[in-house]
Design a protein that fits this description.
By secondary structure, the protein is α+β, with helices and mostly antiparallel strands. The protein is about 25% helix and about 20% strand. It has one domain. The strands form six sheets. A six-stranded antiparallel sheet has the order 11-12-10-9-18-15, with no helix packed on it. It is globular.
Length: about 325
């Protein structure tokens, strides 16, 4: 009996041992970890892919921004022509002026709101003329500017009653945009011969008038962009540019002072891709090397231009697309 019980107990105890012996034994882990060389190869491949992908993404973003800018310019031309159709084929007055009464003179063509009405019966804001044709003020802004403008829509909705909340309530505030607006605007192409640039007064203006309605801003020596003096500025980005965020609309400004020549030599121009829209609504691309300088007239009586010396408040030079200037 004892032997039998012992035998049974031994059998019961042996069973788990036998079962364990029958279990499959796991093979040792395969020694396939990356070596340092293989890891470096993988990192090199990833770096190469990044080097290809990142510039491609940057180019894609730049292309999208460019297309938005072209759409915005077109969205200015179409309402302007609709306005002209409703107003005897005439575009509204330019806001690029300063002064009141017979002594008013020209100023920065980017102005969306002037300091005051230059003569009785003329509004001081673009919005007063085009608000019924343009609802969203974003179309009046270049999408490449380095930052948003807090008060753009507020300015547009206010029109002639625009009052910048950031300034004393007793002052009349102007507003300077990012596009240059050239309808019904005049500037000097040559300070010696007094040759004029004349923006279009309507869709069917004569040969002496340009067909240029609006363009990206590209300028030089603007008194609001100091320091440094004689700087280049644009609503479009360019190499070695900083940001001027003190104006109504932020803009790109060269960090190093320009050559000081007036006009500056073309070889000193930053490389910028620019756009312009014309009276028939088409938008053209052009480069910063394919431009002509335009001086702002400080005295309409004798066609004297502002000096380009970086003096605070002076508008500086504006560069027009070369093919926007009518032949002599």
């Amino acid at each position: 009996m004892q032997d039998a019980r012992t035998s049974r107990r031994s059998g019961l105890e042996a069973e788990p041992i036998d079962a364990l012996e029958k279990r499959p034994v796991l093979a040792p882990a395969s020694k396939t970890a990356f070596t340092l060389v293989e890891l470096l190869v993988v990192l090199g491949i990833l770096s190469a892919l990044a080097a290809i992908t990142v510039p491609a993404l940057s180019l894609a973003r730049a292309k999208v921004t460019e297309l938005k800018g072209m759409a915005n310019l077109k969205s200015i031309a179409l309402p302007l022509n609709a306005f002209a159709n409703d107003h005897e084929d005439r575009y509204p007055p330019s806001m690029g002026a300063v002064g009141f009464g017979p002594g008013w003179n020209w100023h920065d063509p980017r102005k969306l709101v002037a300091v005051n009405e230059r003569v009785p019966g003329i509004h001081r804001s673009v919005s007063a003329y085009l608000r019924d044709y343009i609802d969203d003020a974003k179309v009046l802004s270049c999408p490449a500017v380095p930052g948003a403008c807090t008060y753009l829509q507020q300015m547009w909705d206010a029109g002639d009653n625009w009052d910048n909340p950031a300034t004393p309530a007793t002052t009349k505030d102007l507003f300077t945009g990012s596009f240059c607006l050239y309808w019904n605007y005049e500037g000097l192409l040559d300070t010696r011969t007094k040759r004029l640039f004349k923006g279009p007064w309507g869709p069917a203006c004569g040969k002496a008038y340009s067909r240029l309605l609006a363009s990206d801003h590209f300028g030089y020596g603007n008194g609001l962009d100091i320091p440094p003096s004689f700087s280049y500025a644009s609503c479009e980005p360019f190499d070695d540019a900083g940001i001027n965020d003190k104006a109504d609309m932020p803009r790109w400004v060269s960090l190093a002072p320009g050559p000081g020549n007036v006009p500056p030599p073309v070889e000193t121009f930053p490389r910028i891709s620019l756009k312009a829209v014309y009276t028939d609504g088409h938008v053209e691309r052009y480069s910063s090397s394919d431009v002509v300088p335009m001086w702002v007239i400080v005295n309409r009586a004798d066609l004297t231009a502002y000096k380009i010396d970086g003096t605070q408040g002076t508008p500086g030079l504006f560069f027009l697309p070369a093919n926007a200037v009518p032949a002599r």
